[in-house]
Structures are given as C-alpha cells and as structure tokens.
Design goal:
The complex is a heterodimer. By secondary structure, chain A is α+β, with helices and mostly antiparallel strands. Chain A has helices at 2-14, 21-42, 54-72, 74-81, 83-102, 112-115, 125-147, 154-173, 387-406, and strands at 178-185, 189-194, 200-216, 221-225, 230-234, 243-246, 249-263, 266-269, 276-285, 291-298, 309-313, 316-322, 327-337, 343-349, 354-356, 359-366, 376-383. Chain A has 3 domains: 14-177 and 389-406, no CATH class; 180-215 and 328-382, no CATH class; 218-325, no CATH class. Chain A is built from 9 helices and 17 strands. In chain A, a hairpin with a 2-residue loop joins strand 6 (243-246) and strand 7 (249-263). Chain B is mostly helical. Chain B has a domain at 120-264: Up-down Bundle (Four Helix Bundle (Hemerythrin (Met), subunit A)). Classes of the chains: A alpha+beta, B mainly alpha. At the A-B interface, helix 5, strand 5, strand 13 and helix 9 of A face helix 6 and helix 7 of B.
Chain lengths: 413, 269
C-alpha cells in the first residue's frame, strides 16, 4: 500500500504549478514523441494541410480557447507566460529548425529519416505542436501587455505582434497558396496551368508568347588539369585583344565571335540557332612571355561539339577552354487575352513579375538544353490570399526592430 | 596581368592594421601610442576603401555580391565600429579585436582571389541586393563587436587590458545596446530578403538552407533578449551565450556552404 502511494504522491507534487524547466521539457519531449508517431502513421502534414475556410475556423477556435484560458484559468495562463515555458519552447523550436538546416530537406526520400519527419521538419507534427504552443504563449503575452498599454510598451507590442502575425498567418495560410506553372511556346497561346502534381487548371485568361529572349554573359575561360581539375577560371569581356592570366599562363584573344559556326574547316559568323562562342587564342608563359601555342576554343551547343585547347608545356598537360555561357537575363515578351477581348502586351522577366487577375506571374525557366534558342518559356503563377496580412506583420516587425535599436530600453522585468 | 593596385591596397591594409594592433597593444603599457593606433587604423581603412572602389570601377557594379566581397566590407566596417566605441565609450581594446578579425578575414580573402570572380545569375540582379547585403554586413559587424566585448570580460576579466572606471553593469549595458542595434539591422536584412524573394521567386519564404540559417541566427539573438529580460543578473551567462550566437552567425554567413544541405541552396556564391 505504502509503495503504491509513494510514487503517486511524488507524481502529483511533480506536476504542481508553477512548472519548472523539468516539467516543460517533459511536455515538449512528450509532444515530440506523439508527433513522431503521428508522422509515422499519417505520412506527414503536407497531405493534411488546412485550407480555407478550415484554417480560419481553426485559428478562431484556437484563439478563442486562448482567450478563455486568459480570463478563466489563471494557473494555465501563468504556465504559458513563465520564463521556463518560453525558454523551453523557444529552444525546442530553434532546435528543430537547426535540424532542418543540417539534414537535407526533401520529402520525396523513402527512408527512416523521412518516416520520422526529419526530412520535412517545417511541415511535420512535432514542429506544428511546438509552434502552436509557442504562438499561444506569444498571443497571451501580447494580450497581457496590451491591457497595460503605454507608449513605452509600443516597441514590445510591435515586435511581438509582428512576429505573431507572421508565424500564425504564414503557417496556417500556406495551405491556400497557389503556385502553378505554365508552359508557353513561341507563337502559341496557352489557357491552362499545372501544379506540382501535374494537375491541370483552366485559367480565365490566355497568355501568348511572342518572343523569348535570353541574354548571356560572355563565357568564362578555364584552365583545367589533365586529370580534369579546375585550376583557375576568369571572366572574359567577349571582345578581342583581351589578355587574361590563368595561373602561370597568359591568354591573348586575337579573334572572338559570339555567333560562330564551324563549316568547311573554318569559323564563320551567322545568326543560326546552335551557333556558339568562338575565339582564337595565343597562350604565353607568364614569366618569360614565350609563346607556347595558339589555337581555337569554342563553347558547345546542340549543333556543335565544344572545342578545347590542349596545352603541352614541358610535360605539363593542361586544357584551356570556354565554360558554358551563363544566363544574365531572360525575358518573355507576352500578350495576355481575356474572353472579353481585352488584350495586354507586356514583358515578364526574373525579378520583374507581372500582376494579372489574382495572380503574380513570374518568369520561371526555359529549355536549358537549347539555352538562348529555347522556344519554351515556363512561367509561374502565384496567388496567396494571406500575403497582405503577412506584410502587415513584416511592417510591424520592421518598425519594432528600429524602435529596439534607437529607443534604449531598461532591461529587466 | 598582375593587378598592382589590388596588391598594393591589400599590402597596405595588412601592414597598417598590423601596426595598428601593435600600437593599441603597446598603448596599454606605454601611454601615448593611442594616436598612432588610430592613425594606422585610418590608413588601413583608407587602403581598403581604395580597394573596394577599385573593384567597383573595374567590375562596373558595387562589390557587394560575392562572399569575398562581403568580407571586404565587413573588414572595413568592423574597425569603424571599433573606433566609434573607442571614441564614444573610451574603450580601446575592442578596436584591437576588430582589427585582428579584419586582418584574419582579409588574409582569407587574399588567398582566395577566386572569391571575386563571379557571374551573377539573373535572380541576383535586383534593387534589393544592395540594401539586403549592406544591412546584413552592418549587423554582422555590430554583433561581432558586442560579442568580443562580452568575451573579453568573460575570459580575461581584470587581467589583460583592464580599463579602470568600467564595471560589469555599464559594460553589459553597452553590449546590450550594440546587440539591439545589430539585431535591428539583422531584422531588416531578413525582411528585405523575404520581400526580395517574393519579387524574384514568387514566395517570401521557401526554407532555403541560407534562409533557414538566417532565421536560426535571428532566433538565437531573439533568445538573447529574453535571457537579458528574464535573467538580468546573469551577466556571465549572457556573455558566454553571445559567443555561441556568434558561431551560429558564422555558420549562416559561410559555414552553411559546408553543411549537407548546401546542395539545395540557391545562395551558392
């Protein structure tokens, strides 16, 4: 009898308010344990993510419960506001995010890490539980401080409210984000978009691709060892008469063209798809300016093989070559049509999206094999109904951070 | 073609900062060298400024885009912070730390000239680029300085470089103030980054490894504020915590390139 009563008594005293670090840590670890099991059973949150209006109902029920706690259950409220709770759950949250910063995040993997949620931390049950409890504490803190509002408290309120808005809305609004792709071909109009599972959606407008333009940087020049190791690479200007030093060698360009074609054993210019960068180079020993050789180099394309320069300098066999040119800018020249006969001409490029209907339309990619001759331009259509609220939170946080820096605060509670 | 101007600026910088450190150190034993330390410091900063302007002109863009270039600005701002602290708080030893760290980073840059040779992908050609990077570098410089102030007090209290007239309380107040300023810039960097991501990729947050680590760093300093709020008297804990926080910051800045997640990042430069 005594044995049975002993531990029970200990247990009840262990769970006495206020909770210390041990109790909070136990709660956190239990929640993670339950979360990992749920992860194993349900295969992750991604499939069960809440969408409008369910997410709105959830947010309302959640925060009404918090208000009830705030007014009716002072002991629970105290637990949520205690420093032990805040540090345990903040620490736990950061710990989870650190895992997601170390373990590659890829939900597609089929292994043990994936089954326990480690490959998709930010859409896993343990993360959700931690976030919900932390956001609850944040909300209750805001209410408490709001009740005794003064100008001095405004920095505190801006920071905490901003963070609360961003966390809650960005997390629970993510189910409503639409992110579709659209394949456009030059000279054709497209009426539909597809999601990441290739499900097709008709659009209330069509986009016609008049032209896809890709500008490239002049290709970089590389020095490569016989074993294939990149020893040095340098930018080129794309002009002739340029001198570039690569380690112990100096390369002089006596001829450069950006639209070359190798035909009848000579390099010619021409505006044809598949034409490449070509240069005739002279290679010197940097120390004594002795000419070591000269020859052609060229980038490759779907039409022509690349051409490399073999350098044979007293048993030092090396390769000098152009690397594939890298894109500098790519732009889709488009016309947008609607059923009501409106027609809009515009261009869409990276960093310059175009807003139409409820969507923001982004330049996403193109046919990388064809490069600048790509006939295909892939656009991305994004719609996020919660974005304005999140931006509100961002604004609060920005002002709050400035306040923190420029209005010195008296530390301590 | 050897870039003589580049080499000269590098050399001058290293030399000046080396002498600057020396002078500041000597000054603790032998008064009167303070001016000399400042002079060398200014010379080094001037050399670095020449270097940055030179890169700006030859690359025809602000040199703010590669890891090597961010290190240059960091090395310019760090001694500047040290000098401001020297003037404002009458503390000369933070300058010593700032110069040493600047010297270390400059040396890394010197042996990695490839860090300056990068072509930018289209997504990085944005008006957000410069403010995003500048506020981050300022934040890094401020947070580093504050950490050093704490670390010095934590490890070498009253032994080396002791300066009378400064007690723990007033020191931690200065540290907190600098951390708060650094944190404000950190927040701006994070949020500008999010706004830019929305403009370039359609989403303000995609948990890219660099984003994840930037967020971790931000949270780590957020915890620092709570530590100072709830445990005001635990000054040594706060100073020790800042050291750990700085390690996180360095992981975010360049350590992230060596983590298993790096392959997924769009922030590879």
């Amino acid at each position: 009898m005594n044995d049975a009563n002993g531990p029970k008594k200990e247990l009840s005293s262990f769970w006495n308010y206020p909770f210390g670090y041990e109790q909070n840590l136990l709660i956190l670890i239990s929640l993670w344990f339950v979360g990992i099991q749920l992860e194993y059973l349900t295969g992750g949150l991604e499939k069960n993510i809440l969408q409008f209006p369910d997410n709105l109902y959830f947010l309302i029920i959640w925060h009404v419960s918090l208000l009830i706690i705030n007014f009716k259950f002072p002991q629970i409220l105290k637990t949520f506001l205690a420093k032990e709770f805040i540090f345990t759950f903040l620490g736990g949250w950061v710990f989870l995010i650190i895992i997601s910063g170390i373990v590659p995040q890829d939900h597609g993997q089929k292994n043990l890490l994936n089954q326990f949620g480690l490959t998709h931390i930010v859409v896993s049950w343990p993360y959700l539980f931690t976030l919900v409890l932390l956001a609850s504490s944040l909300f209750l803190t805001i209410i408490k401080r709001f009740a005794r509002f003064s100008l001095r408290e405004s920095v505190f309120l801006l920071n905490h409210t901003g963070l609360w808005i961003i966390l809650v809305v960005a997390t629970f609004g993510s189910g409503d984000q639409v992110s579709w792709k659209m394949n456009l071909y030059e000279g054709k109009a497209t009426w539909e978009a597809y999601d990441k599972n290739s499900k097709i959606y008709p659009l209330p407008f069509a986009i016609y691709l008049s032209d896809f333009i890709l500008q490239e940087y002049p290709p970089e020049l590389a020095l490569i060892s016989a074993s294939g190791k990149l020893l040095s690479k340098k930018k080129t200007s794309g002009m002739k008469q340029q001198r570039i030093s690569l380690k112990n060698y100096e390369v002089f360009f006596d001829e450069v063209i950006n639209d070359g074609v190798f035909f009848n054993n000579e390099w010619k210019r021409g505006k044809h798809p598949g034409n490449v960068w070509h240069a005739h180079i002279q290679v010197y020993d940097k120390k004594n300016q002795q000419l070591l050789g000269s020859g052609d180099i060229a980038t490759g394309s779907f039409l022509q093989a690349e051409q490399i320069f073999l350098l044979d300098n007293n048993d030092h066999k090396m390769i000098i070559k152009y690397l594939s040119p890298r894109p500098q800018k790519f732009t889709s020249m488009v016309k947008v049509f609607t059923p009501s006969q409106t027609e809009l001409k515009t261009s869409i490029e990276v960093n310059k999206p175009f807003g139409f209907d409820r969507y923001q339309i982004y330049q996403h990619s193109y046919d990388q094999k064809l490069g600048k001759w790509s006939q295909l331009s892939v656009l991305e259509l994004v719609y996020d109904p919660w974005i304005k609220i999140v931006y509100g939170g961002v604004f609060f946080l920005l002002i709050g951070a400035l306040g923190l820096a420029f209005f010195p605060k008296k530390w301590g509670g | 073609m050897v870039d003589y101007l580049l080499l000269t600026a590098f050399g001058m910088f290293l030399f000046s900062f080396g002498l600057g450190i020396f002078s500041v150190m000597i000054n603790h034993k032998l008064k009167g060298f303070e001016r000399m330390g400042d002079l060398f410091n200014l010379l080094g900063m001037f050399a670095l400024l020449v270097l940055i302007l030179h890169l700006w002109i030859t690359h025809q863009r602000p040199p703010l885009q590669t890891l090597g270039e961010t290190r240059l600005w960091y090395c310019l701002l760090l001694p500047m912070c040290g000098m401001v602290i020297n003037v404002k708080l009458k503390l000369s030893w933070p300058l010593w730390y700032c110069q040493s760290l600047a010297l270390l980073f400059l040396t890394i840059d010197f042996f990695n000239p490839a860090a300056f040779e990068t072509l930018l992908p289209p997504a990085l050609l944005s008006i957000y680029f410069i403010p995003h990077v500048v506020v981050y570098i300022i934040a890094y410089a401020l947070l580093t300085v504050a950490t050093f102030m704490g670390a010095k007090n934590f490890f070498w209290k009253n032994k080396m470089f002791h300066q009378p007239g400064l007690n723990d309380d007033s020191l931690i107040k200065s540290i907190d103030q600098i951390i708060a300023m650094g944190y404000a810039f950190l927040t701006m960097g994070l949020l500008f980054g999010a706004l830019w991501a929305k403009e370039a990729w359609g989403h303000y947050w995609t948990w890219d490894p660099k984003e994840t680590w930037a967020f971790i760093t931000w949270m780590i300093y957020l915890i620092y504020f709570h530590l100072r709020y709830f445990y005001l008297k635990k000054i040594r804990l706060a100073q020790f915590y800042l050291l750990g926080a700085l390690i996180m910051l360095f992981i975010c800045w360049f350590g992230v390139n060596y983590l298993p997640t790096a392959g997924q990042s769009i922030h590879t430069y």
